[in-house]
Amino acid sequence: MLYIIGLGLCDEKDITVRGLEAIKSSSRVYLEAYTSILLVNKERLETFYGKEIIVADRDMVETQAEEILRGADKQDVSLLVVGDPFGATTHIDIVLRARSSGIPVRVIHNASIMNAVGACGLQLYNFGQTVSLVFFTDTWKPDSFYDRIRENMGLGLHTLVLLDIKVKEQSEENLARGKKIYEPPRYMSIPQAVSQLLEVESLRAENVLSPKTTLAIALSRVGCDAASDNTQQRIVCGTLEQLNEQPPESFGEPLHSLVIVGKRLHHLEVVYAEEYAVCRETWRRVAAEVYGCALD
To answer: 124: Cβ–Cβ under 8 A, 6 or more apart, which residues?
Structure first.
């Protein structure tokens, strides 16, 4: 049996009872470590789970999946995934590979940013398509996310923007030379994300992401408790212009996500989220005047 097990959002204690039982029954346990990261190290996971963990990087998951699947038709093997197993298409692929090899698969779900984003006060059924925002380079600035946000906006729906992470990435030079030298991990910050959004808006000029009148909510380390290793969930909201003006430290530590607020904004969403507003007066004014919310 191949178990694909969601670990949740924060630390080793977020795993479900069913997930922990599957890990303990497994002969090998892999940790997928590139589509997202957990906020504790491998050693803490090993201590809590009582099992040695093999880190599965991008190369192993995408090009050496047969190693993960080896023997899973005769014994239990677990692949641990931060968040929920189906939060990335990579994990769909490995399920299909297992099926084609006649290996039974069991998926054990957990919380992910896709549902935990509700912590900001926006109602989950008012979200549209989720988009990813990658690090821009001098020669590569993909903007297809803008079209998805525009489509969501046209329906009045919120957009969850997942910010890029770079883990065990090679520079173009080292990649070209075949050198297994990796760059330090990088995590996109809220200021960088907002700056890139506004850069694309300035080029496309379709008024989808107007700096002064588009509301947005920044989230950091969703689901984490301040009592755990000084990690703390943080939420900050305001216009894109306001978020762009805040110092990076005001958004907390990575990982970060960003929500572009849709025009079908309910007054209860406004009231709930204003607790986190850079300026409550501006938050309420834009919600009322631009988004048409009836506020007391």
So the answer is: 115, 117, 118
